Amino acid sequence: MPRNQGPTRRDFIRGLGLTAGAAALGSRPEELHAAPWSFSGLRPPSPFPELNDRALGWLQFLWEKSTTRDNWSRWGVPHPWWDQYSVPGVTSYPRFDLQYSTYAILMMADQTPAWREAYTRIVDELAGRYTTYWGAVDWLTQIGPDPARANYPPQFMGGIPRDLRGNYDRIGWTANGVEPWGLQEDPIGSDGYLFFRGWLGLMLSIYGYVSGDDKWERPFTTTGYADQDFEWDHHRMVELMEAQWRAHPEGPHCENTKIWPFCNSAAGLGVYLYDKLHGTDRHLAVQNWLEYVKDNYMGVSNAGELEWFTTWYDPIVNHKANGGPSSGLQAAFLILPQEPELASFIYEASANAAGWNNPRVPARPSSAGLLMARELGDETAIVRLSAAAERAYEPRFFGEHNEKFGWWFGLNEPYPRGQRSAMMMVSEIGQGGDWTRAFETPHMNKFEAPTVEGIEYPSMGVVQAWNDPESGTLYVGTYAATSDRQGQDTSWRVTNLPDSGEVFVICDGQPFDRFETEGPATIRIDSDIGDHRYQIFTGYRGQGASTREARRKRSSSSASQSIRTVPDSAREVSTSFVPDGGPICGCC
Prior knowledge:
The chain is of the alpha+beta class. The chain has helices spanning 9-25, 53-67, 94-111, 117-130, 137-141, 154-157, 194-211, 234-247, 261-278, 284-296, 329-335, 340-354, 367-376, 379-392, 418-426, 434-438, 556-560; strands spanning 220-223, 229-232, 298-300, 306-314, 319-323, 395-398, 404-407, 451-453, 460-468, 473-480, 489-495, 504-507, 510-512, 515-517, 523-528, 532-537, 574-578. The protein has 2 domains: 9-40 and 51-444 and 558-578, Glycosyltransferase; 449-543. It has 17 helices and 17 strands. Helix 3 packs antiparallel against helix 4 (117-130) and helix 7 packs across helix 8.
């Protein structure tokens, strides 16, 4: 909710959830803060997007996490606030916290397209950690068959075909070195391990859209086996993944021997956004895979209802681990921007199976369900799942001045649980449909438009930064992130101006003259750290050719390549069925 508006129906539900949650937990009610520290007053209403308090608090925490130095090398250990705990053995690696954290950044960047520097820094820091030893720690240490395979606990053993139990690796074991691939020292260049390479590709596509910078399109190194460095760039990564989908329309392996629609969907989404940024069509290979999903990884009844969805498929032993409709929700969230009809079909089946629109069925919290309900406008499910999340997931502000926000999930931990909080935050930002719209790159003109730079973040934050070309006005809202910095002097710039000499500024409804020109396209604003509204009359009307057009030239080679399709399996596939699909991640 924008900070200047009155409470909405959803905020009323949140309030009920917080009250009920505190009563149910029976402990630490004083820590279940419903709001951050008090600001100086209500802002006047604005017709343009703003970040709400929860988004601002999450951004503060992501900034602290990403800019605090820690050691992700073989000789170090990531800071404990990086989530390497959720779903042990499956997503209990800190890179999952990194990759999920980019989702909310993408959403926030579209709310304040005229201010990007903090988002750029955060995603760059996340990507820098991703390419380290700890980013690929499972691939670099889980060599060969799992020596513990004969002694798996029931949650792993139960998902293995009966005739293979004791002689088969659990889900999540990457098995680098097994035949027919052998030891592959480069985690990006491997045949398998798509759930490293694919999410990195998505992260780098998000970086490109948020920042407009080509840093990760230039050569960088990633840590491989025995601390070797391997050189890659984003373009080559996408070319490799495209080639792998063309060679294997059933999908590349996420860990060796197992193909997960979940991780293939994430990798495909990264390629989808890459195409939007560069004017290429490499996603055609992913579209072919999505058709394979419909024919092979879903079971639809004669009545047209989804009966099962494949969590993972092992083509070596020809076994599918199938679950009920809800087992496809995680993939559906990632498929939605790529193929809305398929994702909507999976969601509707999941919603019906879970009874989210049936008031007689208690609604269990589901972050993936809430994300999809919000994107698709299922208002009844939104209200019920939001209330369930408020009761069960322990949202609260924290920090010395309650300036940070996260979800604690009743785990009694010193920090918000990273992976799960990151997923919940996507449904806190903007409006329904914004996740899908973000992958259509609606704000590419932001790189030529007037831009706010030099903000003294995190002492002063930005709640609004929006160019209105109809009025030629840049709307900027600032706030003091912590009470101890309120009122201190600060300065910041507006760049990319058509003519800095013609700028006129209003602050908090009054003419404002504390600004100086710094060249033909830049002004410096001298103000204080606080809750202010600026209307900067720039004269920008959206004119001008994009200086990034050269990056959008269509790739003729990828269009001419044919896509090899494969028929349904020629041999009978074995299956197992788990109603909820079994463990994937900790975000449901």
